[in-house]
Amino acid sequence: MSQEYVERVRAFLGLWNGRKWRFEDDRLAFEQVFFHDAATALIDPNTVYVDDVFPDHAGEEFRGLDGTRRASKGWTEDCEWLLVELNEVIDAGERVVSIHDSEARMRHTGMEFAGPIAYLWTFRESKLLRYEAFRDVDTALKAAGVKD
Q1: What is the full DSSP assignment across 41-103?
Q2: Percentages helix, strand, coil for the chain, rounded to the nearest 5?
Q3: DSSP letters along 111-133, please?
Q4: 30 and 21 in contact (C-beta within 8 Å)?
Q5: What does the pLDDT look like over 95-146, one tens digit per residue?
Q6: Which of 3.20.20.70, 3.40.50.150, 3.10.450.50, 1.10.3720.10 is the CATH number of 2-144?
Q7: CA dist., res. 121 & res. 92, Å (int)
Q8: pLDDT digits (tens, 9 = 90+) for 59-94
């Protein structure tokens, strides 16, 4: 089952991975990612998304595809552009860790940010229960139980 989880995560990430999204032109295209079959096959109505990357999301949980769409709109609305490139997917049984490099430029300030980001995907009985974004890769690996 764990290989199936890895493949489902890769299919979803493949929808937006490695493309430099320029939100003045690409906003609608980016939002459509979350209506694609790979997204709807992965994200269940009860799936919870959380992150510790974006301060405006701290302490908030987003549920299902609608919540994921809301969250993605929130974390991209201030971006002029965003690039996230997948480096590695780690199979950890009922959990999958995806590790990425990310870069962004803010629309109003022109400030640029670059650094790693990791997602921890937790499955149970073929359903994605939860996925979490982490700014610190080691924290995600520890949460997955693949690193002490």
Answers
A1: HH--TT-EEEESSSGGGTT--EEHHHHHHHHHHHHHTTEEEEEEEEEEEEEETTEEEEEEEEE
A2: 35, 35, 25
A3: -EEEEEEEEEEEEETTEEEEEEE
A4: yes
A5: 999 999 999 999 899 999 999 999 999 999 889 999 999 999 999 999 999 9
A6: 3.10.450.50
A7: 10
A8: 789 999 999 888 888 878 888 999 999 999 999 999
